[in-house]
From TrEMBL:
<feature type="transmembrane region" description="Helical">
    <location>
        <begin position="7"/>
        <end position="38"/>
    </location>
</feature>
<feature type="transmembrane region" description="Helical">
    <location>
        <begin position="76"/>
        <end position="94"/>
    </location>
</feature>
<keyword id="KW-1003">Cell membrane</keyword>
<dbReference type="InterPro" id="IPR051598">
    <property type="entry name" value="TSUP/Inactive_protease-like"/>
</dbReference>
<dbReference type="Pfam" id="PF01925">
    <property type="entry name" value="TauE"/>
</dbReference>
<keyword id="KW-1133">Transmembrane helix</keyword>
<feature type="transmembrane region" description="Helical">
    <location>
        <begin position="224"/>
        <end position="241"/>
    </location>
</feature>
<comment type="similarity">
    <text>Belongs to the 4-toluene sulfonate uptake permease (TSUP) (TC 2.A.102) family.</text>
</comment>
<keyword id="KW-0472">Membrane</keyword>
<feature type="transmembrane region" description="Helical">
    <location>
        <begin position="253"/>
        <end position="271"/>
    </location>
</feature>
<protein>
    <recommendedName>
        <fullName>Probable membrane transporter protein</fullName>
    </recommendedName>
</protein>
<dbReference type="InterPro" id="IPR002781">
    <property type="entry name" value="TM_pro_TauE-like"/>
</dbReference>
<feature type="transmembrane region" description="Helical">
    <location>
        <begin position="100"/>
        <end position="118"/>
    </location>
</feature>
<feature type="transmembrane region" description="Helical">
    <location>
        <begin position="191"/>
        <end position="212"/>
    </location>
</feature>
<feature type="transmembrane region" description="Helical">
    <location>
        <begin position="44"/>
        <end position="64"/>
    </location>
</feature>
<keyword id="KW-0812">Transmembrane</keyword>
<feature type="transmembrane region" description="Helical">
    <location>
        <begin position="159"/>
        <end position="179"/>
    </location>
</feature>
Length: 274
């Protein structure tokens, strides 16, 4: 019983931190599972993680929907483009030799985190909307009356989403940990809109991955199902806490927290490769 209580506590941490930075929480859960359950195969670990990410993202999305910070039009478009990659990621996780991939991916995450630390020493200021062919312009006013006006290159957003869709189930880390910095630094979304919209995208993408795992029979194990259920007991309320905290924390602190998480994940993936 103690292990299930511990899983619930881990779930609260995963839900709170994952929702706060719009990353789902898989980057926390995968190392935990590797440490405490070394007997589990990579396929099962990523399957458990992506199921928890789906629950976390769904709970966080409900909270963010109330805040009025989700860009549904961009979210639906990007989510559609994550689906092909998401299905392919689940189907290839047991076949692709990951050592070289993990080394490259780990190094890229570390470099990205260092870039974010450097770039976000000061408060992030979203540039004026670009009025240009291929750019979408949007204006959102959240529940607190704050208005966000921004633009983004839709083609770049779609390409990023395809890549995120593939990496997410392959490593079981959700995908928001890549999507959020990409949306903020490359697509120029305001940070709070990016974290909320990323969670909405993640809810759709992770659910698709879970369905593919179900079809493949990955969850045909009572112990695995129990682990997911007890993690969910913590993740669901934790996601609500994370969404509430996001209203009170400055955007540059959120990005710095994300950068810190990125470097942890990058080091973990790099070390795991040897």
């Amino acid at each position: 019983m103690e292990q299930y209580i511990l899983l619930t506590l881990f779930g609260i941490l995963i839900g709170t931190v994952g929702t706060l930075i719009g990353a789902g929480g898989g980057f926390i859960l995968v190392p935990i599972l590797l440490l405490f359950y070394p007997e589990l195969s990579p396929e099962v670990i990523t399957a458990i993680s992506i199921a928890v990410v789906a629950l976390n993202a769904a709970s966080g999305t409900l909270a963010y929907a109330k805040s009025g910070r989700i860009d549904y039009k961009a979210g639906v478009t990007f989510a559609i483009y994550t689906i092909p990659g998401s299905i392919l990621g689940v189907l290839t996780v047991t076949y692709i030799p990951q050592q070289l991939f993990n080394i490259i991916f780990g190094v890229l995450l570390i470099l990205l985190s260092l870039y974010l630390f450097y770039k976000n020493k000061k408060n992030i200021v979203t540039p004026e909307p670009v009025i240009k062919k291929g750019y979408k312009i949007n204006t959102l006013t959240d529940r607190n009356g704050i208005t966000y006006k921004y633009s983004y290159n839709e083609v770049y957003g779609k390409l990023i989403s395809v890549i995120v869709g593939y990496i997410s189930p392959l490593l079981g880390i959700g995908g928001g940990i890549i999507h959020v910095p990409a949306m903020v630094n490359w697509l120029k979304f305001p940070v709070h809109i990016a974290t909320a919209t990323s969670h909405f995208i993640l809810a759709i993408m992770a659910t698709v991955s879970v369905i593919v795992h179900i079809i493949n029979g990955t969850y045909n194990n009572n112990d695995v199902v129990l682990m997911i259920l007890f993690l969910a007991l913590g993740v669901i309320p934790g996601a609500q806490i994370g969404a509430k905290l996001s209203h009170k924390i400055k955007s540059n602190i959120i990005i710095q927290a994300l950068a810190f998480c990125l470097i942890i994940v990058g080091i973990r993936i790099f070390i795991k490769s040897f």
